[in-house]
Amino acid sequence: METEEQSTHFDVPDANHSNHHLLTPAQLHTPNVTIHDDTDTMNLVDSVLGTPRANEQRTTTAAAPATASATASATVTAEDGNDMDEGELQIRTMEIPRWLSTNEVTKHLVGNGKGKALEQEYECTVVITGEGSGTKDPNAPGYHLPHLLVTMSGHDVRQLGRLRRALEDSLVDYIIKNTPEQEESVNPPPSLGRLLYVLGLSAANASPKTKDHTPDRTVLARSHFPIHLHTKRDEDGALVHTKKVWMNVLELPQDNSTSEYHGRFLASRSFMNYYRSHFHCRVDIYGVWGDGEEQLMCAPYVLITSDEKSNVDKCIQYVEHRIRDHEEKFGVSRQGGRRVLRGEKMES
């Protein structure tokens, strides 16, 4: 035990430590700064899960720190979209993480007439392929992928951006719908932060101005906290509030003999105070509190957020070294291996 310290066009199948004073998830809150949401004008992703593009190798080292003005790198302005010929067919893709790549999720996104309604509303076409799509055509782009791939095509990149946001909202709704309500009404579902990080990566990768496509970099994403940001809607069904924060995630180590994940050692009172006071970051640890209370859809993880990118980058390095120390002391490890930090080389 841890010590403290594929092509489917809506043919949807049936769904199938030495530290102490640990804090509970309800206690791990610091406020974040509101950033206005400009996703209406975003293009869609090329790759969000680290799947290399054609003729491109996956990068393995983190990018140089961005300045405060780098907020703009996560979105594409209307001028960016207007540079394209509106008469040309534009194709965008969005990858869905493996832990959400199921027949049930496909049906939630486009089943029961939802897909056709989206196509009509946004004047686009939507095709879902990959694992969990139910596609039967082996020649369809994305057929062999181990996760769902959403391919959207249309002549107006702004409409494609709005379609993307609608699909993101639908995925968020799926997480909320399939997670038991939290004891603290403001707490989000434990899996939501991981999803929002992936969606944030996809938004950043969508921008033609983005040069760094490192799969585990810090990105601007919708805040996971508090939950009402994702549930309170106006009469037209649009979200009433939006807030963005800089975000990154870390895997947690696991004991191979017991399959137990270690993460509570990161939640000592001294550590939590240090994250807030020194890095100005909110740190949430999910999947290590026992009794199946959290009911994660993804693997346990650490979520780090702040209103400044540099804060998150510094906090990531600090937490990563604490995890490495814990791994060496207790003989545990992470499935994906150590995080490659800036200035380090990936181990062969």
Care to give the gist of this entry?
The protein has 348 residues and is an alpha+beta fold. It is 26% helix and 11% strand. The protein has seven helices and seven strands; from the N terminus they run H-E-H-H-E-E-H-H-E-E-H-E-E-H.
Top keywords for this entry?
348 residues; alpha+beta; four-stranded antiparallel β-sheet; three-stranded antiparallel β-sheet; globular
Overall description:
The protein is α+β, with helices and mostly antiparallel strands and 348 residues long. It has helices spanning 78-82, 103-110, 114-122, 157-177, 192-206, 269-279, 309-330; strands spanning 90-95, 125-129, 149-154, 219-222, 244-251, 282-286, 301-306. The strands form 2 sheets. A 4-stranded antiparallel sheet has the order 4-5-7-6. The protein has a 3-stranded antiparallel sheet with strand order 1-3-2. The longest helix has 22 residues, at 309-330. It starts with 77 loop residues before the first helix and ends in an 18-residue tail after the last helix.
